[in-house]
Amino acid sequence: MNLAEGVQIVSFGILAAMMLGAAIGVVLLENIVYSAFLLGGVFISIAGIYLLLNADFVAAAQVLIYVGAVNVLILFAIMLVNKRQDFQPLRRGWIRKAATAVVCAGIFALLSTMIVSTPWAISTATPAGDASVVVIGLHFFSDFLLPFELASVLLLMALIGAVVLARREFLPDDEADRAQVEALRLPERPRELVPSGRDETVN
Amino acid sequence: MQLQYFLLVAAALFCIGVYGLVNSRNAVRVLMSIELMLNAVNLNLMAFSNYLDPQAIKGQIFTIFVIAIAAAEAAVGLAIVLAIYRNRDTVDMEQFNLLKW
Amino acid sequence: MDFASLAVQLNAGTIVPEAIVLITLMTVVVSDLIIGRQASAQWTPYIAIAGLLASVVALFYQWDVANPISFIGEFNGDALSVVFRGIIALSAATTILMSIRYVIQSGTSLAEFITILLTATLGGMFLSGSDELVAVYVSLETLSISSYLLTGYTKRDPRSNEAALKYLLIGASSSAIFLYGASLLYGLSGGETRLSTISASIASAGLAQSIGLVIALVFAIAGIAFKIAAVPFHQWTPDVYEGSPTPVVAFLSVGSKAAGFALAIRLLVTAFPLVSEQWQLVMTTLAILSMVLGNVVALAQTSMKRLLAYSSIGQAGFVMIGLILGTDAGYSSMVFYLMVYLFMNLGAFTCIILFTLRTGTDQISEYAGLYQKDPLLTLALSVCLLSLGGIPPLAGFFGKLYLFWAGWQAGAYPLVILGLVTSVISIYYYIRVVKMMVVKEPQEMSDSVKNYPPTDWTLPGMRPLQVGLVSALIATSLAGIFSNPLFTLANDSVLKTPMLQQALGRSKAPIAKQMAPTISQQLSLQITEVSTKKAVSLPKSMVHS
């Protein structure tokens, strides 16, 4: 074992331990804000593992998108809905938790048996390494062009949809011509509108 | 360094995500658990990409798509959580029982 | 690879129908921004319907295309995908017809609704033809995310919020599980993502019966079964159907489900032929559970939307019979049933929307005595429900007959007998609704029918609803008697599809094999060139050992 390999193994061990510890924290901690910050830790550790896997571009994308966008978004959501409420404890809630834990351990045992027993067809070719950005670009504009373009439509739609759902409604000013078609009705009629500014009391 | 190490870590992360998915009371935490599962998948893809497909690195492409779509999904999910919080004033999964499961 | 040769290889002509939908979508978004909400509600729906119908016409010209493989193996526009894309586009067009009045009435804006619906359609159409794991995932998510948004569209209704949240959480986790299966496929095949090459490289790696492939199969089926709402992945269905806006339910029950079946056929037949016994076993279990649970639980429902939710679970079970058989007749009976299901289910939903708009309820007991007040609605709803139940001269009867005949031919006797028994059960609950509407005495009329407003088709948005109602009525009643063209279409779509013919073991040099190697060789050559050029200059430590 040469020095480079030793450094790789040690850093992999540290990163994996950090990641799994933080992930367990995300799932188990009571305070959701701690969970959100630990989730950022999971994402950062995974970015480190990507560097070990010769993928610098994806590691950067992971930091930018997951830590910079998704995690911040989650923190915003927590602040917007944070009510500091204690959930009513469920009766016999621990049975469900124990059962899930057993099932998850079973799934892990199954997956790890599969991983260890399968003879993976390890390739001996040189990894793309620093050239990965060029290769990724080539893929995007040749054989992965269709999903690339479709993803842009998807992102546009997620943008429009998220705005439509999260925006506060104002009372429509066309109450007059609504009354004209009072003959029709729906069970999904708008209920009373929530006054603007109630959510901002919590920071 | 072996492929199996990475895959085992990814499998462990996936199982932690499944546990959180089933047991979380807070809707935001359920979304976080889903992100953990997606990250486990990404780790799998990246490991395969490096060890089995180092020249064409299709796994990295796949991962980039998963990252982009996971971000969109998180945005939509949090918008829905905000909408439901406005109407119900809670994010407790056990309270969402207007509809029978 | 210069630009001209790339353009030839992309073969973008096969996605003209999708391009039309995309252009329509952008037109709707931009014109809504420019001309404002009031004016755009007047005519954006009709632009969208025109675009979808144009897309169906374009699909007609795709039927006999010489080389269906496009985008360097990403998309396969074969005859089977053409039929499924047609079903999805038609279901979206009908959904828009019935949603105009509904959306205006619910106090939300119409243009965004149509935009999101068109995106869902686009995702479903691409999903029907995707031939590569990344394309499958991206189009699946396009369909799913748009569906979550549509489900929560009436955001001031807590039931709609709740339905959207449940749908999103279950959907996102099932797609994460599906992705784990996809990543295993990528690994087991040693770095292949094209569905058609995956199974060949798994076989050549000697992993044909490995535990990894079975796990990948189970995980992938979890994702598919969620989309087609097969038991035990059905829990979201009744809630989402009850809580979300009714036009959305109509689209989910037809368009989204058809896309799920297209994915099921393509993925299971091309990527998992090595474990075909296992997937047939799993799908048989799912089909049996869906038929029994869907039809039995439907008996106890009091809400019309929930009744149709459980009945659609049962119908999915019937369709899965065709998938399991693995014969020509099996696949074409499945396609035929889905085409018939399009007309009758959308017709039933149009009737429910109309009734809900006039009375504000969808309880089954409130339908009592409707015949006295609105004979047209009663006739249309009765025809559609009887057709769903499979009463003879109607379309649904021939669909079920063909499915069960195909099953009998292939020797799946227990499955066919179970299908017959459960469809008799289903006739009971459909007839119950019809009986409620038709034979009640005037004094037994329900309160909402007593206060039933006079029919006025001139209100804005009611005319499209009337058109949808009448055309669904005509299609459902005539598709039974003149079912021959549909029947031929379904048969041809299976016979013209190289993928299925190859799976059935009588192929002569499939097109996929001819085109694929040259393109991917060329590309990988280029990529190798790039990466070796750079990799030489890498420090040793960066390269894994």
UniProtKB/TrEMBL annotation, chain A:
The reaction(s) this protein catalyses: a plastoquinone + NADH + (n+1) H(+)(in) = a plastoquinol + NAD(+) + n H(+)(out); a plastoquinone + NADPH + (n+1) H(+)(in) = a plastoquinol + NADP(+) + n H(+)(out)
GO cellular component terms, semicolon-separated: plasma membrane; transmembrane transporter complex
Enzyme Commission (EC) number: 7.1.1.-
Keywords attached to this entry: Cell membrane, Membrane, NAD, Oxidoreductase, Quinone, Transmembrane, Transmembrane helix
Subcellular location: Cell membrane
Pfam families named among the record's database cross-references: Oxidored_q3
Membrane disposition: Multi-pass membrane protein
GO molecular function: NADH dehydrogenase (ubiquinone) activity; oxidoreductase activity; quinone binding
Transmembrane spans: 6-29, 36-53, 59-81, 101-122, 144-166
Principal localisation: membrane
Main enzyme class: translocase
Family according to the record: Belongs to the complex I subunit 6 family.
Function: NDH-1 shuttles electrons from NADH, via FMN and iron-sulfur (Fe-S) centers, to quinones in the respiratory chain. Couples the redox reaction to proton translocation (for every two electrons transferred, four hydrogen ions are translocated across the cytoplasmic membrane), and thus conserves the redox energy in a proton gradient.
Protein name (database record): NADH-quinone oxidoreductase subunit J
Source organism (scientific name): Myxacorys almedinensis A
From TrEMBL, chain B:
Pfam families membership: Oxidored_q2
A GO term for molecular function: quinone binding
Topological type in the membrane: Multi-pass membrane protein
Claim: NADP is one of the keywords in the record: yes
Transmembrane segments: 30-49, 61-85
Localization of this protein: Cellular thylakoid membrane; Membrane
GO cellular component, one term: plasma membrane-derived thylakoid membrane
Keyword Iron-sulfur set for record: no
Source organism, top-level taxon: Bacteria
Protein keywords: Membrane, NAD, NADP, Oxidoreductase, Plastoquinone, Quinone, Thylakoid, Translocase, Transmembrane, Transmembrane helix, Transport
Catalytic activity: a plastoquinone + NADH + (n+1) H(+)(in) = a plastoquinol + NAD(+) + n H(+)(out); a plastoquinone + NADPH + (n+1) H(+)(in) = a plastoquinol + NADP(+) + n H(+)(out)
GO biological process: ATP synthesis coupled electron transport; photosynthesis, light reaction
InterPro entries assigned to the protein according to its UniProt record, in alphabetical order: NADH_UbQ_OxRdtase_chain4L/K (IPR001133), NUOK/Mnh_C1-like (IPR039428)
Enzyme Commission code: 7.1.1.-
HAMAP family reported for this sequence: NDH1_NuoK (MF_01456)
NCBIfam families: PRK05715.1-2, PRK05715.1-3, PRK05715.1-4, PRK05715.1-5
Family: Belongs to the complex I subunit 4L family.
Oligomer and partners: NDH-1 can be composed of about 15 different subunits; different subcomplexes with different compositions have been identified which probably have different functions.
Functional summary from the UniProt entry: NDH-1 shuttles electrons from an unknown electron donor, via FMN and iron-sulfur (Fe-S) centers, to quinones in the respiratory and/or the photosynthetic chain. The immediate electron acceptor for the enzyme in this species is believed to be plastoquinone. Couples the redox reaction to proton translocation, and thus conserves the redox energy in a proton gradient. Cyanobacterial NDH-1 also plays a role in inorganic carbon-concentration.
The protein's name: NAD(P)H-quinone oxidoreductase subunit 4L
TrEMBL record, chain C:
One Gene Ontology term, aspect cellular component: plasma membrane-derived thylakoid membrane
Top-level taxon in the UniProt lineage: Bacteria
GO molecular function, one term: oxidoreductase activity, acting on NAD(P)H, quinone or similar compound as acceptor
Membrane-spanning ranges: 15-36, 43-63, 83-103, 110-128, 134-153, 165-186, 206-226, 247-269, 281-300, 307-325, 331-355, 376-398, 410-431
Alphabetic keyword roster: Membrane, NAD, NADP, Plastoquinone, Quinone, Thylakoid, Translocase, Transmembrane, Transmembrane helix, Transport
Gene Ontology biological process terms in this record: ATP synthesis coupled electron transport; photosynthesis, light reaction
Its EC number(s): 7.1.1.-
Domain NADH:quinone oxidoreductase/Mrp antiporter transmembrane: 130-426
Subcellular location field: Cellular thylakoid membrane; Endomembrane system; Membrane
NAD(P)H-quinone oxidoreductase subunit 2 N-terminal domain boundaries: 11-100
Name of the top EC class for this enzyme: translocase
Swiss-Prot/TrEMBL catalytic activity: a plastoquinone + NADPH + (n+1) H(+)(in) = a plastoquinol + NADP(+) + n H(+)(out); a plastoquinone + NADH + (n+1) H(+)(in) = a plastoquinol + NAD(+) + n H(+)(out)
Main location group: membrane
Membrane topology: Multi-pass membrane protein
Oligomer status and interactors: NDH-1 can be composed of about 15 different subunits; different subcomplexes with different compositions have been identified which probably have different functions.
Homology family: Belongs to the complex I subunit 2 family.
Alphabetized NCBIfam families for the sequence: NDH_I_N, PRK02504.1
Descriptive protein name: NAD(P)H-quinone oxidoreductase subunit 2
Organism: Myxacorys almedinensis A
Gene responsible for this protein: ndhB
